[in-house]
């Protein structure tokens, strides 16, 4: 409720207390595909394209199946502890390389992790042996073993 100034008994105006307005804004961006760039730290945005180790995108409009954005995808495949098993992960979407390829993706990881995944995908909500969920396996799809903490990022 917003009110104006009130009078004091002596006829002086009292200034109303400051009102803090809290407005919750939700911005919903609808998309069909995503693009990922792997860029080393400390490069300015103007140099990202030249400095990028890998650049790839999806082109099968997969986000339509998950509400049109990553927020909705992660509501369907939450990233939280003990939400699934190693074989119960979220979607693995094929990617198209703009810079790099499957071999260069595999070469970014050591031999042990590289034996557990197939390059050429982006996977959402992979689960490791300890039942921790990883948000994204960028550029790879886990296929055997459950050591996703070595090649996926963002977890619970």
From TrEMBL:
GO terms for molecular function: oligosaccharide binding. GO terms for cellular component: extracellular space. Keywords: Disulfide bond. It comes from the Eukaryota. This is Intelectin. It comes from Channa argus.
